[in-house]
Structures are given as C-alpha cells and as structure tokens.
Amino acid sequence: MIAHVLRIGGKLALWFVGLSVLWVVILRFVPVPFTFTMMGDLLSGHSITKQWKPLSEIDPNMARAAIAGEDARFCSHHGFDYKAIAGAAWRNAEGGRIRGGSTISQQTAKNVFLFQGGGYVRKAFEAWFTVLIETIWGKRRIMEMYLNVAETGIGTYGAEAGAMRYFNHSASHLTPTEAARIAAVLPLPKKREAVDPSGFVRRHGNRLAGYVGVVKRNGLDSCLR
Questions:
Q1: Residue 188: which pLDDT band, with cuts at 50, 70 and 90?
Q2: What are the beta bridge partners of residue 157?
Q3: Residue 55 · residue 140 · CB < 8 Å
Q4: Contact (CB, 8 A) for 61 and 174
Q5: Which of 37, 199, 67, 39 is nearest to 142 (CA)?
Q6: Is the distance from CB of 130 to CB of 80 less than 8 angstroms?
Q7: Residues with Cβ < 8 Å from 52, sequence gap 6 or more?
C-alpha cells in the first residue's frame, strides 16, 4: 500500500516538474495572457486594464525605479536575496509592521504562476518557479514580465497601463519622478495612487526618484542593458 502511494506520488511529482518547466519555457517567448490575481479582480467585480510592452520599449527609468524600490541587488543575486530575507526576519521578530524580503524574481514567479496569499505552501511553489525563471528566462525577461504583470492599481496591470492611468501617456517615456511614483504603488497597489499622491506615496516616490540616478550610475541595472 505504501509503495503504491509512493509510486503515485512520484509520478505526480514528475508530471508537475515536467509541466512546470514546459510552462516556463513557453512563457519565455510569449506574453502572459492572464494571471490568478487578474482572475481575483474579475471575481471581485473589477475590470482589467493591461497592455503588454516589451522591455526595450519601456523607459529604463521604470526598471531602475523598480530596482531602487523593490530589489537593489536584482542584478547580482540568483533569485533570492538572503541578506534581505535575514533582515526582514530580524525586523519582524522585533515586532511592528510585517515586512518581506522577496526579490523581483520571487514576486514575478508569484504574479505569473501563482496566487496571492497561501502561506508556506505557496512560498514553496514560489521558490521552485523562481529557480526555473532565473535559469530559463534570465534577468531581462524576468524584469520584462514583472513590469507587465505587476499590479499598478486596482484592476491595472503593468507599467504601460499604469502610465496611461496616472499620466495619460505611454511608459515609453517616463521621468524619474513618474517612474518612481508607479514603483511606490507596487507594494500596496489596491491602497495607493500614483497621481497627485500624498503621505507615504509622495515621500517614498520622492526618495525613489532620487535613487533612480544612483541605480544607473552604480550599474545596479547592468544586467538589463
């Protein structure tokens, strides 16, 4: 009985590995048509606004702002920033607002292949897909995916849709301030607005706008050039 269960479990594991690798390979070449997060918005009664934009057509300031705000070591790690994870664990142990240590790669894996929430089980699948996209996609494709599927407002997905929503023009031309304000929305897109921001979004956006130049000068976006 136990041997039978183990055989079935082994076959299911092999099927999962094979299908997940195939899924990642396919999305290496085609845009993501839909995500579980988008499905959640639809089920909640929200409309979906998105428009795929190749990384080569997105202003570099947007990627730099994302790196500045979400993952300063994006170009140097291999999917997991262990220093950030340890730092987040230390801060969380001290109490107060819970903070994560997820990299852009991890966030992309979650946004493209998985759903929000889910605790440790989702985290385990997120880690698996993070390894796959780092291996199969590479940094440019990961950033391209991130800037196209990340939620930039309620029902709004990607830098292009965010730029049109907040600034009425394409993400092909973004000032450091505009890119930084979109990046400031990313951690809590359902509660923040990039247009006429106030409070935290304004302060955080202003800080990120200053860091955009630092990212460029220090080559923190070198893997995208």
A1: confident
A2: 50, 151
A3: yes
A4: yes
A5: 67
A6: yes
A7: 31, 148, 158, 160
Q: How far is CA 56 from CA 16, 143, 171, in A?
A: 33, 11, 11
The SS3 of residue 11 is: helix
Q: What is the pLDDT of residue 7?
A: 87
Judge whether residue 85 has pLDDT over 80: no
State the virtual CA torsion across 130, 134, 138, 144 in degrees, nearest 10. Answer: 10
pLDDT score recorded for residue 204: 84
Residue % of the chain over a pLDDT of 90: 71
Q: Which residues pair with 156 in a beta bridge?
A: 49, 153
Distance (Å, whole) CA 134 – CA 113: 14
Runs of H (alpha helix) within the chain? 2-27, 36-43, 60-70, 82-93, 104-113, 119-136, 139-149, 158-167, 176-185, 199-217
Terminus-to-terminus CA distance in the chain, angstroms?
Answer: 56
Q: CA-to-CA distance for 10 and 121, rounded, in angstroms?
A: 18
Q: What is the DSSP letter of 79?
A: S
